[in-house]
Each structure stands twice: as structure tokens, then as C-alpha cells.
Design goal:
By secondary structure, this protein is of the alpha+beta class. The chain has 16 helices and 21 strands. α7 (164-170) crosses α8 (172-194). The two termini are 26 Å apart.
Length: 499
């Protein structure tokens, strides 16, 4: 039958339930145990004849005359229920007959084994907690070695992302990814707290965005009659807190960037940024490596992960190398020593587009992204970024063309970004003004000049290290998922027709 006919039949059952004076959506319910609790030491539950009250979703149902069976499920497990008119009474059994798969029920009774040896709850009473109107998608199951195996899953990828509630309901193993994500984020907080960092919150709506190279989302505040931006990073606000006297701060929260979408990018994403006074780039490198290894071992329990078709080993000492060094190894080019004509020729051969107004530092980054980045499979700290593309990082003392900055790459993707933070207010102003000129030439992702931040720097900021880690990508790695949409409960999707 068409779906609307099923809905019509269930609405008719709903009317019959109400006609019996039964509230199909009661405000109160009770539960004495989770299902998983009574699946342990089964004989003990039976011998003691313990009165058990379970609550969950009825995921299967079958009746024959005056007896019926069903399976109910909560977030801990599933168990069969046995309902007979002789045990529950005529009125209660009539209610059970009006139930459907998908309804929420409360089942009271005692544990026992059926004649076929199925461990079940023999019901003394069934209470309807929530009537299902729309039938659940069909999922085929079979029992193998005592375990339920689903072999015809709710598998339409796009539909799974659009209707995540059905994905979680019909594919319980997918819930484990998000449970693990929650444990990972909790473990990050404990790790940072134990290191003496203070967790803070900074504005999401900002009068001026900054701290990264990205296009923002713009909104408008009616009362103030001003345009505001969804933050692209939390960096500049956290640095203001260091100016104000905090020495170790971090924030875990959403950032928003109005840019492309692919398997590793979503317009809103979760970052963790931290800043530590009197630290530097090396301190941040050690912090990031220790944190990721801790999450891998303490939360997930292993060192080697399958990610983007590669075996990634997080144990051992992580490789550290300069960007120029890696580019020279891959291409033979010493970018800063090459002529502009030679670099232009190479980029043309590699189909690398050089934006207007960029110098050799930007060209180095473009060649790195094209020729080196995809080859960095095992954890690698790429250091010595060009100062030209690192407007918030200190220049290296022995080479003013480079900055004290690293990015962590794993399986060809970026996972973290860190600096020895620039605390010279005059140098910082010059850097941001140079970025503003790039914006005038058409670079929509260049940094803007934030006068309030520059004023804060003029009051004095200690030397420090700062880093940012992409939580979503880290969860992708630790759950061995190749798409960011698999680790976001509600990823951004292109509207369907008619939406």
C-alpha cells in the first residue's frame, strides 16, 4: 500500500485507542531497568522472579489469536516480549492489538524462557507511551550466533544524512560513531583542563571577523542596525584574553566559513583552539602530538587507523620537516631562489593558478598543496611556512621570509595549525594592512584589519604559542570515516526540490 494508506490506518487505530479512554501520549512513564541490565545473568532474573518494567520502541510485532510477541528496544539493547490475553486481561490485550512497530511502549512483567528457548519478558501489563503514525522503513534482519544482523540496511546515503533520526534508529551501529565523538570531545576537555588550561567562550556573532583566511557568513542585527559576521575563528578573541592576564586558555566551538563543501569540509565545523603564554611553536607541536596520541590510545584503544585508504600509524615520533624542504624534494625547486619566470612556467605545466598580487611565499604554498600535501600519509608536522601567508605568526629569526608556523598533515589532509604568535603590534599592523591590499586585489579570503585587536596588542601581549585542531577531521580519523558527513549529526545539505 502507498505510505499515506498506512498513515490513514494508523490514524484510525489512534482514534480507536482514544475512544477507549486511553491517552496514546501520556505525560508520565516509568522504567525499572534498561534492557541491557536484564540480558546479563538471565537465570538469576528468572529464579528471583524480579518484577521488571521496561520502556522502549516496539520494533517488531506479531500476534496469533490471544497471544502475541514483540521486540522492544532502548539505547542499550533489545528483548522479546510475550503478551497473552490470559496474563494482561482482555482490555489490555485489545490495546496491544492496536499497537504497531514503531510505537513506544512500557512493558511490565518477569523474565522467562519461551518454549522455543527465547529469553523474553512475560508481560503483566502493556502501556502505550507514544503512537507511531508514519511507518518505519523496512529493514531485514536475521539472527546469527545469537546476535541480530541487519542485511538490508537503511542505506541510501543522502537520505541517511537528511533524515539522521532514521539513520540512527535503523542503523544502531551508526550511533556508536556519535557516542565516540562525544567521548573524544570530553577527553579533549579533560586533557586540556589537566594541563592547566581554562575553557572560555567567545562571541559567535562578531562585528569584524578574523583569525583565518576565509569568507564569512554575514547577518544583520535589527536593534543595533549593524551587520555582524559568524566567526571564522576564535583566535583574536582568545589573544585578547591573554592580554587581559589569562595565561592558558582554550575554546571548543563552532566556526563558520562560507566556502566550498566536500568530504572534509562543511560550512559549520567544530574547532579547538588554545593559547599559552610563554610557550612557542615547539610547545604547541608537543601538545598536539601528545593530545592526539592520548585520544587514540585512551579513548579508542589503538594506534593504527584505516583512513582514506591508508594505514595511519599514530605511534612513534612524528616526522617534522620544512615546507621548502619538502617542495624541493618533490619537485627539485628551491622556490625562493628560483626566478619568477621559472616558477610561472612550472605552475603553468602543473595547471596551478597564481592569484594576482601574490609573492613567492604564496607560490610555495600552492606548489606544496599540489605536489606534496597528498603524499603526506603518516603524521607530519610541516613547518617554516612563508611569512607572506602567515600574518599572525612570528617571523623566524634566521629567515625573515618564513614564519614560526606548522600544520599537521595526516593521510594528505590538514588536522592542526599552530604559530609562535606575533606579539609585536607594529609588525602585526603592517601584516594586516598587507592582507587588506590583497583583498583590494580580489582575495576574498585575506585577513581584515581589526583595530580593536591591534589596540589590545599595544597594551602588551606576552610571547606565546597557539594552535587550532579540527575536531571533525580528528573524529573522522579516530572513527575511520572518510566523509565529514558521517561524523556530523546534521551536515549541511543542498535543499531538495520543493524545500
Amino acid at each position: 500500500m502507498a505510505e499515506n494508506q498506512f498513515i490513514k490506518l494508523r490514524k484510525e487505530k489512534l482514534a480507536k485507542i482514544r475512544a477507549r479512554g486511553i491517552d496514546p501520549y501520556p505525560s508520565q512513564s516509568k522504567r525499572s531497568h534498561k534492557i541491557a541490565q536484564i540480558l546479563v545473568d538471565k537465570e538469576s532474573w528468572i529464579e528471583q522472579a524480579t518484577q521488571i518494567t521496561l520502556a522502549g520502541r516496539l520494533v517488531a510485532m506479531r500476534r496469533q489469536g490471544k497471544i502475541g510477541f514483540g521486540n522492544i528496544e532502548d539505547d542499550s539493547g533489545r528483548i522479546q516480549i510475550y503478551v497473552s490475553q490470559a496474563e494482561v486481561g482482555v482490555e489490555n490485550y485489545e490495546l496491544f492489538k492496536l499497537c504497531d512497530a514503531g510505537d513506544f511502549v512500557q512493558a511490565e512483567g518477569t523474565a522467562y524462557y519461551t518454549q522455543t528457548g527465547e529469553y523474553s519478558l512475560k508481560c503483566a501489563k502493556i502501556t502505550l507511551l507514544g503512537k507511531n503514525i508514519r511507518p518505519l522503513p523496512a529493514v531485514k534482519e536475521k539472527k546469527i550466533d545469537g546476535k541480530i544482523v541487519r542485511y538490508d540496511e537503511f542505506a541510501d546515503i543522502e537520505l541517511r544524512y537528511r533524515k539522521r533520526y532514521l539513520d540512527l534508529l535503523l542503523n544502531p551501529e551508526h550511533r556508536k560513531v556519535f557516542e565516540l565523538r562525544s567521548r573524544i570531545i570530553s577527553a579533549i576537555r579533560r586533557f586540556m583542563d589537566n594541563k592547566g588550561y581554562i575553557e572560555v567562550e567567545t562571541p559567535i556573532l562578531q562585528p569584524l571577523y578574523g583569525g583565518a583566511n576565509a569568507r564569512p557568513f554575514i547577518t544583520h542585527h535589527n536593534t543595533l542596525d549593524v551587520d555582524l559576521y559568524l566567526r571564522i575563528a576564535v583566535e583574536l578573541y582568545l589573544k585578547r584574553l591573554i592580554v587581559g592576564g589569562f595565561e592558558k586558555v582554550y575554546e571548543i566551538g563552532k566556526n563558520f566559513r562560507n566556502e566550498g563543501m566536500d568530504r572534509t569540509h562543511n560550512p559549520e565545523f567544530t574547532m579547538m583552539e588554545s593559547y599559552e603564554a610563554y610557550s612557542d611553536l615547539k610547545g604547541m607541536m608537543d601538545l598536539v602530538e601528545e593530545l592526539v596520541k592520548h585520544l587514540a590510545r585512551a579513548v579508542v584503544g589503538k594506534d593504527v587507523y584505516e583512513y582514506h585508504g591508508h594505514q595511519v600509524d599514530l605511534s612513534g615520533e612524528w616526522h617534522r620537516a620544512g615546507m621548502s624542504e619538502l617542495v624541493k624534494q618533490a619537485t627539485g625547486l628551491d622556490v625562493f631562489a628560483e626566478s619568477d619566470a621559472r616558477l610561472a612556467e612550472f605552475c603553468q605545466q602543473q595547471e596551478i593558478e597564481i592569484p594576482a598580487g601574490c609573492g613567492k611565499g604564496k607560490v610555495l604554498e600552492l606548489i606544496f598543496e599540489n605536489s606534496v600535501e597528498p603524499t603526506l600519509i603518516q603524521p607530519t608536522f610541516v613547518c617554516d611556512f612563508p611569512k607572506e601567508i602567515s600574518p599572525l605568526a612570528k617571523a623566524k629569526a634566521d629567515n625573515p621570509l618564513l614564519a614560526e608556523r606548522f600544520e599537521l598533515f595526516i593521510a594528505g589532509g590538514e588536522f592542526a595549525n599552530a604559530f609562535s604568535e606575533l606579539n609585536d603590534p607594529l609588525d602585526q599592523r603592517q601584516r594586516l594592512e598587507a592582507q587588506a591590499k590583497l583583498r583590494e586585489l580580489g582575495d576574498d579570503e585575506a585577513n581584515v584589519v581589526d583595530e580593536d585587536f591591534l589596540e589590545a596588542l599595544e597594551y602588551g601581549m606576552p610571547p606565546m604559542g597557539g594552535q587550532g585542531i579540527g575536531i571533525d577531521r580528528l573524529v573522522m580519523l579516530l572513527t575511520e570515516n572518510d566523509s565529514i558527513k558521517e561524523v556530523l549529526l546534521f551536515p549541511q545539505m543542498k535543499p531538495e526540490r520543493g524545500e
